[in-house]
Amino acid sequence: MTRKIAVLVRDRESEALRMALGLILMDDAVNVFLLGKKFELSEADSANKELMEEMDIAFFSDNEGNADTQYIPTDELARRLTEYDHVIPY
């Protein structure tokens, strides 16, 4: 059974992205939410993000300044989180 997993990223984005990438090994549906600030991804993080996008992991952010993410207002984000089986804050 496929589970829906949301990974909420505020800090330690490198570790959070690696963890989200590992979660897809069990064929679960994973989405990443970058919260609260503009994230500057390192070169390694960008490579992980590209791989994650190829594996259909969607990226959302409540900050319009985050490139290559879908902007989502905070109230909409809260509503969407209720649709997930697991929400992992990182």
Chain-wise SSE layout:
Layout: E1 4-9, H1 13-23, E2 29-34, H2 43-54, E3 58-61, E4 70-71, H3 74-81, E5 86-89
Parallel strand pairs: 1-2, 1-5, 2-3, 3-4
Written account of the structure:
The chain is α/β, with parallel strands linked by helices and 90 residues long. It has a single domain, classed as DsrEFH-like (Hypothetical Protein Ychn, Chain: A, 3-Layer(aba) Sandwich), CATH 3.40.1260. It has three helices and five strands; from the N terminus they run E-H-E-H-E-E-H-E. It has helices at residues 13-23, 43-54, 74-81; strands spanning 4-9, 29-34, 58-61, 70-71, 86-89. A five-stranded parallel sheet has the order 4-3-2-1-5, covered by helices on one side. Helix 1 (13-23) packs parallel to helix 2. The termini are far apart. 20% of the residues are buried. The mean pLDDT is 86.
State the name of the first-level CATH class: Alpha Beta
Order of helices and strands: EHEHEEHE
Order of neighbouring strands in the sheet with most strands: 4-3-2-1-5
User: Quick one: overall form?
Assistant: globular
SS class: alpha/beta
Report the strand count: 5
Query: What fold name goes in the CATH topology slot?
Result: Hypothetical Protein Ychn, Chain: A
Question: What would CATH call the architecture?
Answer: 3-Layer(aba) Sandwich
Number of helices: 3
Give the low-pLDDT segments.
none
Considering DSSP H and I runs of 4 or more, what fraction of the residues is helical?
Answer: 25-40%
Strand content: 15-25%
Question: At the fourth CATH level, what is the homologous superfamily?
Answer: DsrEFH-like
Oligomer: single chain
**Structural domain count:** 1
Average pLDDT score:
86
- Measured between the Cα atoms of the first and last residue, the distance is 24 Å
